[in-house]
């Protein structure tokens, strides 16, 4: 239930908004901005968030956390969208879809703001007339492209304020034919700018037109008997053609297109952008995105169009998007046009060649997302192990962690489970089940003493290595009995802790007062994962034993079933998840079971099913 005072305070502020366009910023109890949005009419849009039964799940989730809001008025909705992008980048709100650009991607810059422009990499965009191409999500690809430009086009590479008052001495690049040497003052600016136009065409993907232009210049030079220049131009043509031949033709019609697809998993996602220039696939860009939980396909695409195309200075006339994200993006497109001068056309193909390219992009997105998630988990596991060693004061990095849990049903069929994690990941070969031998009824501490004693005795007898850390699922009592078992074997130095469920507190041997750590830290995430896996493994085993016992008891009570038929039924059902879901047809396929007996068994199984449901409610 939302605090009535909070709602009244928000409603009073809404009255001041009126029908102006702008951005609104929702805040939580800690005064953190948790969502930024834009609207043509701020009052009606902000008021819509105060409905606890809103049809949109994200709005309902936001309603539970919002405590206050701010707003900024703008002249138009387009201005609001541009401001929205700035505010999202500034506050990083958890409910907004956004590019995970915690690092600045590089751009290739052509410094048009100065005479005799240079071509170089930068991570900062200035509004000074320079041309920017990118962003490049792969830094190596950006450097390779820059190196290629410097090899093909003799543009200057030394930072100088040109023209110089006094002609300079040319560097080695001039003597190698890799620079026209504008520092000498003998290259007309118009001639140099022709070279810059060629570079711009190259970066824009207009390689076919560039080749044709260079061929005309080569023929003109040849007709003037300037064979050295003609040979020089032919060498540049050959290099550009060689690059084009390596690029895949994806459209016989030619043209420039961006093909965008994405993959999502929980709150994370990956966008893939395939660049088609002149009908040829020139490159692939990959962008991590976050804030996808409870977000629609339309929100994902709109956020990417906003965050990506409001940075670039060149974009194609056509953008191909997934049909599942088909929507009206007119405001976003107007903002892009205002920024780049180009109003791109959007296409949402349902079939044909464009759909095939979208599937290619989607496959790349899935692979990139999987790779990123795995890399993140690996990094988190390494950080978690280092944090465990530091916080728990362990002598070694806990590369091998074992965890033990006790499971029973109201004291009956008590079992224990032991799981092993190696390098922060489950190691299934190290998993163990134990049937409790020395205790009956409800005695979790005593059972833990038995299991730890059996496990450590086995490791000692077999001369196997001890784990770096043992985690006991439970509090001080269970941990104390486990430590007693270790001490009895002269293994008191073996690192061991208890992890209690309710408050996620950690207990140390010999200390009754628990310690608390940040439950969201990598250390606690890993320890909880280990503990929860041990609990899952134990409960599954205990339920399997109970199912077998119940089934065996049930079969004993059914007349006309002898030992042979009983064994046949047990073999048939031993790998079944839910025996009570067996159909009459399935029962009839068991060797030795006829139609009448199958019906009798089925009726007994229905009674078992009802009994099971009643038992589960009491667990």
UniProtKB/TrEMBL annotation:
Residues 19-97 form the GIY-YIG domain. Residues 208-243 form the UVR domain. It holds the Pfam family UVR. SMART domains: GIYc (SM00465), HhH1 (SM00278). Residues 259-482 form the UvrC family homology region profile domain. Its main location: cytoplasm. SUPFAM superfamilies: C-terminal UvrC-binding domain of UvrB, GIY-YIG endonuclease, RuvA domain 2-like. Interacts with UvrB in an incision complex. NCBIfam families: PRK00558.1-5, uvrC. This is UvrABC system protein C. The gene is uvrC.
């Amino acid at each position: 239930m939302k605090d009535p005072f909070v709602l009244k305070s928000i409603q009073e502020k809404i009255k001041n908004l009126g029908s102006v366009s702008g951005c609104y910023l929702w805040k939580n109890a800690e005064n953190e901005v948790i969502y930024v949005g834009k609207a043509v009419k701020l009052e009606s849009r902000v008021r819509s968030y105060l409905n606890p039964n809103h049809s949109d799940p994200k709005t309902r989730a936001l309603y539970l956390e919002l405590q206050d809001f701010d707003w900024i008025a703008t002249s138009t909705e387009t201005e609001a969208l541009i401001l929205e992008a700035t505010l999202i980048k500034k506050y990083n709100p958890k409910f907004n879809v956004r590019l995970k650009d915690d690092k600045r991607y590089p751009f290739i810059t052509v410094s048009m703001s100065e005479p005799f422009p240079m071509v170089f990499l930068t991570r900062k965009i200035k509004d000074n007339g320079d041309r920017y191409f990118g962003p490049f999500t792969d830094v190596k690809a950006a450097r390779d492209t820059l190196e290629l430009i410097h090899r093909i086009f003799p543009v200057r590479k030394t930072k100088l304020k040109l023209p110089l008052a006094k002609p300079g001495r040319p560097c080695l690049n001039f003597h190698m034919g890799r620079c026209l040497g504008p520092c000498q003052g003998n290259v007309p600016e118009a001639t140099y700018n022709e070279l810059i136009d060629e570079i711009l065409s190259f970066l824009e993907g207009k390689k076919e037109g560039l080749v044709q232009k260079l061929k005309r210049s080569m023929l003109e030079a040849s007709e003037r008997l300037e064979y050295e220049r003609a040979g020089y131009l032919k060498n540049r043509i050959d290099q550009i053609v060689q690059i084009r031949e390596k690029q895949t033709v994806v459209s016989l019609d030619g043209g420039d297109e961006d093909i965008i697809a994405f993959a999502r998993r929980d709150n994370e996602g990956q966008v893939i952008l395939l660049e088609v220039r002149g009908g040829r696939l020139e490159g692939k860009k990959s962008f991590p995105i976050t804030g996808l939980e409870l977000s629609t396909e339309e929100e994902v695409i709109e956020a990417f169009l906003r965050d990506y195309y409001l940075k670039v200075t060149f974009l194609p006339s056509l953008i191909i998007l997934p049909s599942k994200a088909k929507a009206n993006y007119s405001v976003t497109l107007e903002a892009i046009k205002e920024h780049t001068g180009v109003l791109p056309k959007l296409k949402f193909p349902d079939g044909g060649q464009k759909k095939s390219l979208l599937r290619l992009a989607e496959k790349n997105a899935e692979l990139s997302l999987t790779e990123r998630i795995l890399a993140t988990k690996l990094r988190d596991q390494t950080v978690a192990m280092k944090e465990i060693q530091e916080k728990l004061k362990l002598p070694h990095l806990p590369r091998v962690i074992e965890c033990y849990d006790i499971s029973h049903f109201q004291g009956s069929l008590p079992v224990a489970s032991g799981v092993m994690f190696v390098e922060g990941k489950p190691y299934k070969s190290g998993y163990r089940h134990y049937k409790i031998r020395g205790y009956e009824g409800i005695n979790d501490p005593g059972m833990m003493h038995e299991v730890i004693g059996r496990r450590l005795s086995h490791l000692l007898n077999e001369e196997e290595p001890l784990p770096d850390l043992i985690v006991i699922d439970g509090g001080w009592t269970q941990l104390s009995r486990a430590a007693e078992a270790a001490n009895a074997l002269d293994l008191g130095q073996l690192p061991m802790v208890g992890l209690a469920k309710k408050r996620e507190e950690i207990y140390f041997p010999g200390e009754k007062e628990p310690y608390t750590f940040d439950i969201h830290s990598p250390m606690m995430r890993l320890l909880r994962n280990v503990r929860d896996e041990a609990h899952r493994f134990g409960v599954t085993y205990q339920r399997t034993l109970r199912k077998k016992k119940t089934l065996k008891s049930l079969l004993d009570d059914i007349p006309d079933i002898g030992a042979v038929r009983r064994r046949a039924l047990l073999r048939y059902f031993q790998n079944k998840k839910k025996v009570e879901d067996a159909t009459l047809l399935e029962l009839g396929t068991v060797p030795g079971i006829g139609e009448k007996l199958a019906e009798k068994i089925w009726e007994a199984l229905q009674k078992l099913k009802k009994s099971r449901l009643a038992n589960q409610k009491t667990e």
